Amino acid sequence: MKRNLTAIAASIVLAFAVTPAMAQTTSTITQQDNNHTANVNQIVGPVASINKSTIDQSGAHHEASVYQAVNSSFATATINQIGGSYNTGNVEQANNTGVIATIGQQWGSNDNQANVKQAGVTEGNAVVYQKENNNLGNIYQHDGSNLDAGINLNNPPGGEPREEYGENGSYNTAYIDQTGSKQKARIYQQDGAHNTANIGQVGMEGDALIDQSGDNNLAVISQNGTGLAIQAKITQNGIHNQAFTNQSGSNLVSNTTQIGNFNVANVWQH
After folding, report:
1. CB 166, CB 189: distance < 8 Å
2. Which of 132, 136, 151, 183 could be disulfide-bonded to 174 (CB atoms 3.0-4.6 Å)?
């Protein structure tokens, strides 16, 4: 019996000894001055893996793209474009668990575009930071669960506070589109004019918030789903602002607050 137990113990130790460690893939690109292009594709291995990519660009007229896919866990993509205009940042993450995408465009940055797409992810976090004017920020989270998206958040999900970005500027457009379950979306546009914020959610337990200050801003929330509560909140401070909320499903909750003059608010629940 002693010999048999010894053999079993030895086989268990051997089994654990040959188990591979969680694979890790890391990429860092740094570019200065103007007119650069950076592309990262991380399409690697087993379910138990960690992918991390960082692209830092300073200047103007840059393009940066990160693609992470194939059943990996804990994928992180960060694009920082600082001190320039006419930059484009793209992050796409598919079929991952525990993902974070961050695009920051700041300090004298006008006419920039940021796009984040997460498809088939669980625990998906996406954040876009844009400062100044004429910027476009898009976040698409489709066919996932536990989704969290934000544009111009000082306290982003899964990351450190980013107070240096702020959210002021004019003629900016922000879109968040989510489908799946347990969705959360937030857009902040402060101290500007002629800004547009649009959130669309389809699925279970949608939670949407838009906060704008300034004049001639537009906020739109559209939700279709079920769950414990479908919640929409719009806050606007200024004049000539418009707020529209359209909700369909069950357990619908809408709150709109406007401070100032000549504002318009419409809510449809059906």
Report:
1. no
2. 151
